[in-house]
Design goal:
Length: about 425
């Protein structure tokens, strides 16, 4: 590969795909794409957006990336910066899926706590994963501007079992040289509800739609051809290589992976500004089934409670429900001491895998198709990282971290019992 800027067209080192590009009138229906006709907007997406300056190019792309969330934009940015003719397709607007519909957490690691990751993956692989996400947060801070705030995050213990779990994670992180703090004393409002916490000092909070829109702008400035409101299929794009970056809608793009990337719904609400700033950093408890923080204007963003109805929350329908929303309102009252006015409600769909780790790499049986997704509710940092990892592999320099997420490890695996909430 040669740096972008020369006059010759850069080609990725694979044979061309024998595929047909669909007409611009072609659209997914809601059953296939998982998109409801009128999904409730998120607070994040309602923020006015800057116009995306489109460089664009004519003719065939070297690489087509399907999905305009954090993963797809990250992948397109790395490819464009290295001279690849990359075209990014998003069925809605940039960040219109889970990347603009989550709780706004930017956390290191994966859904599996670090001590369990050491047992599941081995100490060296667990360390590699944690370091990968810490670097992703550093990169996010460089690229996101005022869409990212480095606040740290608190993982709270709701009972003795979770208290012991936190202690194990704290000790494992400390043993391997990662920054972490144990907190026995909590603010008064939390003392009655929780039994200690661990502080992850390098974590942060994001305005996710602003962040991903900004990431898309970086990709476009580097030369990526960004197409919004243009649904496509893997078989229907005209490119040498295709990257499926749909996360919760992976099965709509790659039906053979429906058993290993399960669409999972997370619901969120936002309140009017509170009188006090009580929760200035991300907080999460009950293995991520509860998560909340306040924004700079003191609004409370809170999500979770999906374990009140796990069966109905295993869905690709982006709709809020009375049960989950009422549970969230009850949690707000416990955390705040009153019931502030709710000003917005929304839902987002992420992809859950059997081992709670992403899939990133070449799709088994499809040599020219790559995948990045399945973040199991922990995709803001992992999505940024995995999009870049896949891009680097397509460029011919596969990083060692990609081995952690090889899709072949789960081929034919069955979906697990639900063991997680979500926090971003």
């Amino acid at each position: 590969m040669t740096p972008r800027g020369g006059s010759r067209r850069v080609r990725v080192p694979v044979p061309a795909l024998s595929v047909r590009r669909p007409s611009r009138s072609r659209r997914y229906n809601s059953r296939v794409s998982g998109e409801s006709s009128h999904p409730p907007p998120s607070y994040w997406l309602e923020e006015p957006r800057d116009e995306l300056r489109r460089a664009g190019f004519e003719g065939r792309a070297d690489v087509a990336v399907i999905g305009g969330g954090v993963t797809g934009c990250s992948c397109a940015l790395t490819l464009a910066q290295n001279g690849v003719r990359v075209r990014l397709y998003e069925a809605r607007e940039i960040a219109g899926g889970a990347s603009g519909r989550n709780g706004g957490f930017a956390l290191r690691g994966a859904t599996v706590p670090y001590d369990r990751a050491r047992s599941q993956l081995g100490p060296e692989a667990a360390r590699l994963l944690m370091e990968l996400t810490e670097r992703a947060l550093d990169r996010m801070e460089e690229l996101a501007g005022d869409a990212f705030r480095r606040t740290g995050s608190l993982r709270l213990a709701a009972d003795e079992v979770e208290h012991e779990s936190l202690r194990r994670e704290h000790d494992a992180l400390l043993q391997d040289g990662f920054q972490v703090e144990w907190l026995d004393e909590l603010p008064p409002r939390l003392t009655a509800l929780y039994r200690g916490a661990i502080l992850h000092p390098g974590d942060g909070a994001i305005q996710p739609a602003r962040w991903v829109r900004r990431l898309a702008a970086h990709a476009a400035a580097a030369g990526a051809d960004v197409h919004e409101h243009e649904p496509v299929t893997v078989e229907g794009v005209d490119a040498d290589v295709v990257v499926a970056a749909g996360d919760g809608f992976t099965a709509a793009l790659l039906p053979e992976l429906a058993a290993v990337v399960r669409p999972t719904r997370g619901q969120v609400l936002v309140t009017e500004p509170l009188d006090e700033l009580l929760y200035g950093r991300p907080h999460y408890a009950r293995d991520g089934y509860d998560y909340w923080h306040q924004l700079e204007d003191r609004r409370l963003v809170i999500g979770g409670q999906r374990d009140a109805s796990l069966a109905t929350e295993d869905t690709a329908v982006e709709a809020t429900t009375t049960l989950i929303q009422s549970r969230l309102e009850e949690l707000v009252t416990r955390l705040v001491g009153q019931a502030p006015r709710v000003t917005g409600r929304w839902a987002g769909i992420w992809g859950t895998t059997p081992d709670l780790l992403p899939l990133a790499g070449r799709v088994p049986g499809r040599d020219r198709v790559w995948l990045a997704g399945g973040y199991s509710g922990h995709g803001n940092a992992l999505g940024l990282a995995c999009g870049d990892l896949v891009a680097r592999a397509i460029l011919g320099d596969p990083p060692p971290e990609l081995d952690l997420f090889d899709p072949e490890r789960l081929t034919g695996a069955a979906a697990p019992a639900d063991v997680l909430g979500s926090s971003g």
